[in-house]
Amino acid sequence: MLRIHFTPADLTRVSVAPHADPLWEIVFSGFRLRERRCSVTYRPWLSALGTTPGSRIAPVRAGFAVLNVLAPTGPYFPDFLTPPAGRLGLEPGLDALARTPRRELRGQLERLASYATLPSWARPLADADAGALTWFTDTLRAYHRAAIAPFAQLAEQSVAADRSYRLHKLATEGVEGLWASMRPMMRWSPPVLEVDYSVDRDVYLNGRGLRLVPSYFCQHVPVGLADPDLPPVLVYPIAQQFAWDRVKPARGSLDKLVGTTRGAVLRAMGLGVTAGELARRTNTSAASISRHTSVLRNAGLARCDREGAAVLHSLTDLGRALVEADQG
Protein backbone atom coordinates (compact mmCIF):
# COMPACT_ATOMS: atom_id res chain seq x y z
CA MET A 1 0.00 0.00 0.00
CA LEU A 2 1.10 3.57 -0.73
CA ARG A 3 0.38 6.08 2.03
CA ILE A 4 0.51 9.73 0.99
CA HIS A 5 0.70 12.06 3.99
CA PHE A 6 -0.91 15.49 3.59
CA THR A 7 -0.46 18.72 5.50
CA PRO A 8 -3.26 21.36 5.45
CA ALA A 9 -1.28 23.24 2.80
CA ASP A 10 -1.12 20.13 0.59
CA LEU A 11 -4.92 19.87 0.52
CA THR A 12 -5.08 23.23 -1.25
CA ARG A 13 -2.47 22.14 -3.78
CA VAL A 14 -4.15 19.10 -5.28
CA SER A 15 -4.54 19.37 -9.06
CA VAL A 16 -5.75 17.19 -11.92
CA ALA A 17 -3.63 17.32 -15.08
CA PRO A 18 -5.43 18.57 -18.22
CA HIS A 19 -4.45 15.50 -20.24
CA ALA A 20 -2.54 12.25 -20.11
CA ASP A 21 1.25 12.39 -20.07
CA PRO A 22 2.59 10.80 -23.31
CA LEU A 23 5.67 9.28 -21.68
CA TRP A 24 3.65 7.65 -18.91
CA GLU A 25 1.29 6.36 -21.62
CA ILE A 26 4.22 4.83 -23.48
CA VAL A 27 5.29 2.97 -20.34
CA PHE A 28 1.77 1.78 -19.48
CA SER A 29 1.01 0.69 -23.04
CA GLY A 30 4.05 -1.57 -22.80
CA PHE A 31 2.50 -3.15 -19.71
CA ARG A 32 -0.75 -3.74 -21.60
CA LEU A 33 1.06 -5.39 -24.53
CA ARG A 34 2.83 -7.69 -22.08
CA GLU A 35 -0.34 -9.02 -20.50
CA ARG A 36 -1.46 -12.46 -21.63
CA ARG A 37 -5.10 -11.63 -21.04
CA CYS A 38 -5.69 -8.06 -22.11
CA SER A 39 -8.67 -6.28 -20.58
CA VAL A 40 -11.67 -5.85 -22.86
CA THR A 41 -11.10 -2.10 -22.54
CA TYR A 42 -8.05 -2.35 -24.78
CA ARG A 43 -9.54 -4.64 -27.41
CA PRO A 44 -10.18 -1.73 -29.84
CA TRP A 45 -6.56 -0.63 -29.42
CA LEU A 46 -5.20 -4.12 -30.00
CA SER A 47 -7.50 -4.54 -32.98
CA ALA A 48 -6.14 -1.31 -34.43
CA LEU A 49 -2.57 -2.54 -33.92
CA GLY A 50 -3.54 -5.80 -35.61
CA THR A 51 -4.42 -3.91 -38.78
CA THR A 52 -1.32 -1.71 -38.66
CA PRO A 53 0.61 -1.74 -41.95
CA GLY A 54 3.81 -3.75 -41.91
CA SER A 55 5.94 -0.62 -42.08
CA ARG A 56 4.60 0.44 -38.64
CA ILE A 57 4.82 -2.92 -36.91
CA ALA A 58 8.63 -2.75 -36.70
CA PRO A 59 8.63 0.42 -34.51
CA VAL A 60 6.04 -1.15 -32.22
CA ARG A 61 8.19 -4.25 -31.78
CA ALA A 62 11.37 -2.23 -31.30
CA GLY A 63 9.75 0.03 -28.73
CA PHE A 64 8.22 -2.88 -26.88
CA ALA A 65 11.60 -4.65 -26.75
CA VAL A 66 13.10 -1.60 -25.03
CA LEU A 67 10.14 -1.13 -22.67
CA ASN A 68 10.25 -4.81 -21.77
CA VAL A 69 13.74 -4.24 -20.36
CA LEU A 70 13.53 -0.74 -18.85
CA ALA A 71 9.91 -0.83 -17.62
CA PRO A 72 9.35 -4.43 -16.55
CA THR A 73 6.39 -5.69 -14.59
CA GLY A 74 7.61 -5.52 -11.03
CA PRO A 75 8.37 -3.24 -8.13
CA TYR A 76 10.47 -0.66 -9.98
CA PHE A 77 11.13 1.15 -13.22
CA PRO A 78 13.38 4.24 -13.61
CA ASP A 79 11.96 7.73 -13.11
CA PHE A 80 14.00 9.09 -16.03
CA LEU A 81 11.48 7.41 -18.36
CA THR A 82 8.79 9.84 -17.19
CA PRO A 83 10.39 13.28 -16.65
CA PRO A 84 8.19 16.16 -15.42
CA ALA A 85 8.51 17.85 -18.81
CA GLY A 86 6.26 15.15 -20.26
CA ARG A 87 3.33 17.20 -19.01
CA LEU A 88 4.16 19.62 -21.85
CA GLY A 89 3.94 16.97 -24.56
CA LEU A 90 5.90 14.20 -26.23
CA GLU A 91 8.75 16.23 -27.67
CA PRO A 92 9.51 18.28 -24.52
CA GLY A 93 9.39 15.03 -22.55
CA LEU A 94 11.77 13.21 -24.87
CA ASP A 95 14.10 16.22 -24.91
CA ALA A 96 14.19 16.21 -21.10
CA LEU A 97 14.81 12.46 -21.08
CA ALA A 98 17.77 12.92 -23.44
CA ARG A 99 19.22 15.51 -21.05
CA THR A 100 18.97 13.35 -17.93
CA PRO A 101 22.20 13.80 -15.92
CA ARG A 102 24.61 10.90 -16.02
CA ARG A 103 24.47 10.49 -12.24
CA GLU A 104 20.71 9.94 -12.35
CA LEU A 105 20.87 7.57 -15.30
CA ARG A 106 23.55 5.46 -13.69
CA GLY A 107 21.90 5.35 -10.27
CA GLN A 108 18.48 4.42 -11.59
CA LEU A 109 19.78 1.79 -14.00
CA GLU A 110 21.91 0.28 -11.25
CA ARG A 111 18.79 0.03 -9.10
CA LEU A 112 16.92 -1.62 -11.97
CA ALA A 113 19.82 -4.05 -12.44
CA SER A 114 19.32 -5.23 -8.86
CA TYR A 115 16.02 -6.78 -10.02
CA ALA A 116 17.05 -8.13 -13.44
CA THR A 117 20.08 -8.50 -15.68
CA LEU A 118 20.29 -5.62 -18.17
CA PRO A 119 21.45 -6.08 -21.78
CA SER A 120 24.71 -4.60 -23.07
CA TRP A 121 22.95 -1.65 -24.73
CA ALA A 122 21.97 -0.33 -21.28
CA ARG A 123 25.60 0.48 -20.42
CA PRO A 124 25.93 3.40 -22.90
CA LEU A 125 22.62 4.77 -21.56
CA ALA A 126 23.97 4.65 -18.02
CA ASP A 127 27.04 6.55 -19.26
CA ALA A 128 24.78 9.22 -20.82
CA ASP A 129 26.30 8.48 -24.23
CA ALA A 130 24.80 10.98 -26.67
CA GLY A 131 24.39 8.42 -29.44
CA ALA A 132 22.69 5.93 -27.13
CA LEU A 133 20.29 8.56 -25.80
CA THR A 134 19.42 9.67 -29.34
CA TRP A 135 18.75 6.07 -30.34
CA PHE A 136 16.61 5.56 -27.25
CA THR A 137 14.46 8.66 -27.69
CA ASP A 138 14.08 7.97 -31.42
CA THR A 139 12.87 4.46 -30.57
CA LEU A 140 10.27 5.78 -28.12
CA ARG A 141 9.15 8.47 -30.57
CA ALA A 142 8.63 5.92 -33.35
CA TYR A 143 6.82 3.59 -30.95
CA HIS A 144 4.46 6.37 -29.89
CA ARG A 145 3.78 7.32 -33.51
CA ALA A 146 2.93 3.73 -34.46
CA ALA A 147 1.26 2.37 -31.31
CA ILE A 148 -0.41 5.30 -29.57
CA ALA A 149 -0.89 8.26 -31.90
CA PRO A 150 -3.37 6.46 -34.24
CA PHE A 151 -5.53 5.75 -31.20
CA ALA A 152 -5.16 9.23 -29.70
CA GLN A 153 -8.66 10.54 -30.33
CA LEU A 154 -10.43 7.79 -28.38
CA ALA A 155 -7.90 7.90 -25.55
CA GLU A 156 -8.02 11.72 -25.30
CA GLN A 157 -11.82 11.79 -25.24
CA SER A 158 -11.91 9.14 -22.53
CA VAL A 159 -9.34 10.96 -20.40
CA ALA A 160 -11.16 14.28 -20.86
CA ALA A 161 -14.43 12.73 -19.68
CA ASP A 162 -12.78 11.30 -16.57
CA ARG A 163 -11.02 14.59 -15.79
CA SER A 164 -14.28 16.52 -16.12
CA TYR A 165 -15.88 14.16 -13.62
CA ARG A 166 -13.00 14.48 -11.11
CA LEU A 167 -12.95 18.28 -11.37
CA HIS A 168 -16.71 18.42 -10.84
CA LYS A 169 -16.28 16.39 -7.66
CA LEU A 170 -13.45 18.64 -6.52
CA ALA A 171 -15.42 21.83 -7.24
CA THR A 172 -18.69 20.72 -5.66
CA GLU A 173 -17.56 18.45 -2.82
CA GLY A 174 -13.98 19.51 -2.15
CA VAL A 175 -10.94 17.27 -1.81
CA GLU A 176 -12.91 14.68 0.16
CA GLY A 177 -15.37 14.38 -2.75
CA LEU A 178 -12.47 13.94 -5.14
CA TRP A 179 -10.98 11.14 -3.02
CA ALA A 180 -14.40 9.51 -2.67
CA SER A 181 -14.69 9.43 -6.48
CA MET A 182 -11.45 7.44 -6.60
CA ARG A 183 -12.69 4.56 -4.47
CA PRO A 184 -11.89 1.69 -4.24
CA MET A 185 -8.35 2.28 -5.55
CA MET A 186 -7.84 5.17 -3.09
CA ARG A 187 -9.21 5.73 0.42
CA TRP A 188 -9.06 8.95 2.39
CA SER A 189 -8.19 8.51 6.07
CA PRO A 190 -7.26 12.08 7.09
CA PRO A 191 -4.55 13.19 6.81
CA VAL A 192 -3.41 10.15 4.80
CA LEU A 193 -4.48 9.03 1.33
CA GLU A 194 -4.20 5.24 1.17
CA VAL A 195 -3.59 3.94 -2.34
CA ASP A 196 -3.62 0.35 -3.58
CA TYR A 197 -0.03 -0.23 -4.66
CA SER A 198 2.39 -2.95 -5.62
CA VAL A 199 4.88 -2.08 -2.86
CA ASP A 200 4.57 -0.74 0.68
CA ARG A 201 5.80 2.82 1.08
CA ASP A 202 5.09 6.25 2.58
CA VAL A 203 5.32 9.61 0.81
CA TYR A 204 5.30 12.87 2.79
CA LEU A 205 4.17 15.82 0.70
CA ASN A 206 5.39 18.49 3.15
CA GLY A 207 3.54 21.32 1.43
CA ARG A 208 4.43 20.36 -2.15
CA GLY A 209 0.88 19.30 -3.06
CA LEU A 210 -0.06 16.40 -5.33
CA ARG A 211 -0.59 16.32 -9.07
CA LEU A 212 -3.05 13.69 -10.28
CA VAL A 213 -2.57 12.56 -13.88
CA PRO A 214 -5.37 10.60 -15.61
CA SER A 215 -4.19 7.77 -17.84
CA TYR A 216 -5.91 5.70 -20.50
CA PHE A 217 -3.35 2.89 -20.47
CA CYS A 218 -2.79 2.68 -16.71
CA GLN A 219 -4.80 -0.18 -15.22
CA HIS A 220 -5.57 -1.76 -11.85
CA VAL A 221 -3.69 0.62 -9.52
CA PRO A 222 -2.26 4.18 -9.60
CA VAL A 223 1.49 4.63 -10.01
CA GLY A 224 3.82 7.29 -8.65
CA LEU A 225 7.47 8.19 -9.03
CA ALA A 226 10.01 6.06 -7.19
CA ASP A 227 12.04 9.02 -5.89
CA PRO A 228 10.12 10.73 -3.05
CA ASP A 229 12.16 13.91 -3.53
CA LEU A 230 10.76 14.52 -7.03
CA PRO A 231 7.60 16.65 -7.47
CA PRO A 232 4.78 14.39 -6.20
CA VAL A 233 2.77 12.82 -9.02
CA LEU A 234 0.17 10.07 -8.93
CA VAL A 235 -0.91 8.64 -12.29
CA TYR A 236 -4.27 6.91 -12.02
CA PRO A 237 -6.36 4.72 -14.35
CA ILE A 238 -9.46 6.48 -15.62
CA ALA A 239 -12.82 4.98 -14.69
CA GLN A 240 -13.69 2.26 -17.19
CA GLN A 241 -17.09 3.79 -17.87
CA PHE A 242 -15.39 6.75 -19.57
CA ALA A 243 -13.35 4.47 -21.81
CA TRP A 244 -16.40 2.41 -22.78
CA ASP A 245 -18.61 5.48 -23.32
CA ARG A 246 -16.44 6.18 -26.39
CA VAL A 247 -16.79 2.64 -27.75
CA LYS A 248 -20.29 2.29 -29.17
CA PRO A 249 -20.70 -1.06 -30.88
CA ALA A 250 -22.71 -1.39 -34.02
CA ARG A 251 -25.50 -3.93 -33.99
CA GLY A 252 -24.12 -7.45 -33.60
CA SER A 253 -20.56 -6.30 -32.79
CA LEU A 254 -20.52 -6.71 -29.00
CA ASP A 255 -18.94 -10.17 -29.25
CA LYS A 256 -16.05 -8.67 -31.22
CA LEU A 257 -15.37 -6.29 -28.35
CA VAL A 258 -15.67 -8.59 -25.36
CA GLY A 259 -15.58 -12.09 -26.85
CA THR A 260 -18.38 -14.51 -27.60
CA THR A 261 -18.68 -16.00 -24.11
CA ARG A 262 -18.53 -12.68 -22.28
CA GLY A 263 -21.05 -11.25 -24.70
CA ALA A 264 -23.37 -14.14 -23.85
CA VAL A 265 -22.80 -13.57 -20.13
CA LEU A 266 -23.70 -9.88 -20.48
CA ARG A 267 -26.89 -10.67 -22.37
CA ALA A 268 -27.87 -13.25 -19.76
CA MET A 269 -27.49 -10.93 -16.76
CA GLY A 270 -30.57 -8.78 -17.14
CA LEU A 271 -31.66 -7.22 -13.83
CA GLY A 272 -29.86 -9.74 -11.64
CA VAL A 273 -28.94 -13.40 -11.76
CA THR A 274 -26.82 -15.79 -9.73
CA ALA A 275 -23.55 -17.25 -11.01
CA GLY A 276 -25.18 -20.67 -11.18
CA GLU A 277 -27.99 -19.37 -13.35
CA LEU A 278 -25.47 -17.57 -15.58
CA ALA A 279 -23.58 -20.84 -16.01
CA ARG A 280 -26.81 -22.64 -16.93
CA ARG A 281 -27.97 -19.96 -19.38
CA THR A 282 -24.64 -19.76 -21.16
CA ASN A 283 -23.68 -23.45 -20.87
CA THR A 284 -20.45 -22.43 -19.17
CA SER A 285 -18.66 -23.83 -16.12
CA ALA A 286 -18.92 -22.07 -12.76
CA ALA A 287 -15.16 -21.40 -12.72
CA SER A 288 -15.35 -19.78 -16.16
CA ILE A 289 -18.32 -17.65 -15.09
CA SER A 290 -16.32 -16.38 -12.13
CA ARG A 291 -13.48 -15.28 -14.41
CA HIS A 292 -15.78 -13.63 -16.94
CA THR A 293 -17.86 -11.72 -14.39
CA SER A 294 -14.66 -10.47 -12.73
CA VAL A 295 -13.39 -9.09 -16.06
CA LEU A 296 -16.76 -7.50 -16.84
CA ARG A 297 -16.91 -5.84 -13.42
CA ASN A 298 -13.41 -4.44 -13.85
CA ALA A 299 -14.49 -3.03 -17.21
CA GLY A 300 -17.44 -1.25 -15.60
CA LEU A 301 -20.01 -3.35 -17.47
CA ALA A 302 -21.35 -5.50 -14.63
CA ARG A 303 -21.80 -5.40 -10.89
CA CYS A 304 -22.56 -7.87 -8.12
CA ASP A 305 -24.79 -7.34 -5.08
CA ARG A 306 -25.63 -9.58 -2.17
CA GLU A 307 -29.27 -10.27 -1.44
CA GLY A 308 -29.50 -12.46 1.62
CA ALA A 309 -27.47 -15.56 0.95
CA ALA A 310 -27.39 -14.98 -2.80
CA VAL A 311 -24.94 -12.93 -4.85
CA LEU A 312 -26.60 -11.45 -7.92
CA HIS A 313 -24.77 -10.32 -11.05
CA SER A 314 -26.38 -7.55 -13.07
CA LEU A 315 -25.61 -4.99 -15.77
CA THR A 316 -24.43 -1.49 -14.98
CA ASP A 317 -26.04 1.36 -16.92
CA LEU A 318 -23.07 1.25 -19.28
CA GLY A 319 -23.33 -2.52 -19.73
CA ARG A 320 -27.04 -2.24 -20.44
CA ALA A 321 -26.44 0.51 -23.01
CA LEU A 322 -23.88 -1.64 -24.83
CA VAL A 323 -26.17 -4.66 -24.90
CA GLU A 324 -29.08 -2.56 -26.16
CA ALA A 325 -26.93 -0.94 -28.84
CA ASP A 326 -25.69 -4.35 -29.94
CA GLN A 327 -29.24 -5.63 -30.27
CA GLY A 328 -30.35 -2.57 -32.20
Topology (SSEs and partners):
Layout: E1 2-5, H1 8-11, E2 14-16, H2 22-34, H3 43-50, H4 54-70, H5 90-98, H6 102-113, H7 122-126, H8 130-148, H9 152-181, E3 186-189, E4 192-195, E5 201-204, E6 210-215, E7 223-224, E8 233-237, H10 240-244, H11 254-258, H12 260-269, H13 275-282, H14 286-298, E9 302-307, E10 310-315, H15 317-327
Parallel strand pairs: 1-5, 2-6, 6-8
Antiparallel strand pairs: 1-4, 3-4, 7-8, 9-10
Helix pairs in contact: 2-4, 2-8, 4-8, 5-8, 12-13, 12-14, 13-14
GO molecular function: DNA-binding transcription factor activity
InterPro entries: ArsR-like_HTH, HTH_ArsR_DNA-bd_dom, WH-like_DNA-bd_sf, WH_DNA-bd_sf
Domain HTH arsR-type: 252-327
Explain how this protein is built:
The protein has 328 residues and is an alpha/beta fold. The chain has 2 domains: 2-241, no CATH class; 254-327, Arc Repressor Mutant, subunit A (Orthogonal Bundle), CATH 1.10.10. Helix content is 52%, strand content 13%. Helix 2 (22-34) crosses helix 4, helix 12 packs across helix 13 (275-282) and helix 13 (275-282) crosses helix 14 (286-298). The radius of gyration is 21 Å and the shape is globular. The protein starts with a strand and ends with a helix.
Mean pLDDT reading: 87
In N-to-C order, the SSE pattern is EHEHHHHHHHHEEEEEEHHHHHEEH
Give the proportion of residues in helices. Answer: 40-55%
Number of strands: 10
Question: Mind describing the biggest β-sheet?
Answer: 4 strands, mixed
Q: Structural class, please?
A: alpha/beta
Strand-residue fraction?
Answer: 5-15%
Q: How many distinct folded domains? A: 2
CA-atom Rg in angstroms: 21 Å
